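re: the backbone from monday

yeah here it is again, tokenized this time
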């Protein structure tokens, strides 16, 4: 896991009458290892192998709970968040001079390749419907003389693949309400959070609406049931690739999955808003929300997944083993 973002700081400078507050921007960085596995392929206790061409075929089982590969960029505080994996095959040298680093992790005799890890299945399936209610008193003054309105929102499920359609059923009972309903909104919101590992003190977070669908309102004193739909995006619309490492540029357009890492978190919420023609119904009106999980689809689910995979990266699926 790697994070990078800018924060605005303040400090007091000068003394006496020249004492003042100065604001400045500072970059913060975070790095946390997700997994570090070593698989010995061959040992030579009796000395180096004989000269010639030698082959060591191997297979490697990766943990099923790995975080999916991702690269997410945000305009707020110029945040950059990435999860990447590198597969390295190397010869372990005897002499210290053939190590690239002091910790003796990377040898100069090596070959490595970035791999793209996806999570094609949900570890805990949750196919059932989820019901939320919005109960509010509309109009009036200072909480008095309001009229009731109840809206029941039924979400079809809380786990989606990119490219799927989220459906919601809305039943609004405004038979006792004396204010018209201006409209309804069905929205997908992304919330990302990233932390630095220099001090573990600073973090960045941002909420952003990724998709919005709107529906017309209804008259006071009526009751109505209707459906709304919203498509989960397959690509991110962030276009500024300046400063993005070349190895991550391919993942910039890929819509990020839900991530619960140690220094990176990406969460999604489906939200339904109802707004009245009332002086005290502020903003977008009352709302209810449901946290949802979003994953990249498996190949057998959406065939174009093969072309959506970032170019130049090897694809590896990680799923829970059969028990």
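seq for it, each position gets an aa:
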């Amino acid at each position: 896991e790697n994070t990078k973002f800018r924060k605005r700081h303040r400090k007091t400078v000068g003394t006496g009458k020249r004492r003042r507050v100065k604001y400045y921007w500072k970059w913060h960085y975070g790095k946390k290892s997700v997994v570090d596995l070593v698989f010995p392929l061959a040992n030579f206790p009796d000395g180096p192998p004989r000269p010639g061409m030698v082959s060591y075929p191997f297979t490697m089982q990766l943990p099923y709970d790995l975080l999916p590969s991702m690269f997410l960029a945000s305009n707020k505080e110029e945040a950059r968040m990435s999860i990447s994996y590198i597969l390295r095959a190397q010869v372990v040298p005897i002499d210290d001079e053939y190590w690239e680093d002091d910790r003796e992790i990377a040898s100069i005799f090596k070959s490595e390749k970035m791999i793209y890890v996806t999570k094609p299945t949900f570890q805990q399936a949750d196919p059932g419907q989820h019901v939320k209610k919005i109960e509010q008193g509309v109009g009036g003054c200072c909480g008095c003389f309001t009229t009731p309105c109840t809206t029941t929102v039924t979400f079809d499920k809380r786990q989606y693949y990119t490219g799927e359609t989220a459906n919601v059923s809305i039943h609004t009972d405004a038979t006792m309400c004396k204010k018209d309903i201006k409209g309804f909104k069905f929205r997908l919101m992304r919330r990302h959070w990233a932390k630095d590992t220099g001090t573990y003190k600073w973090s960045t977070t941002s909420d952003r609406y990724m998709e919005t669908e709107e529906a017309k309102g209804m008259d006071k004193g009526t009751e109505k049931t209707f459906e709304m739909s919203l498509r989960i995006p397959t690509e991110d619309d962030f276009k500024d690739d300046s400063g993005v490492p070349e190895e991550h540029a391919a993942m910039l357009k890929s819509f990020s999955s839900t991530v619960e890492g140690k220094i990176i978190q990406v969460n999604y919420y489906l939200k339904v808003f109802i707004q009245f023609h009332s002086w005290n119904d502020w903003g977008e009106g009352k709302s209810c929300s449901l946290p949802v999980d979003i994953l990249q689809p498996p190949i057998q689910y959406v065939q174009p997944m093969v072309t959506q995979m970032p170019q130049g990266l090897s694809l590896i699926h990680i799923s829970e083993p059969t028990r």
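Helices lie at 246-249, 305-308. The longest helix spans residues 246-249.
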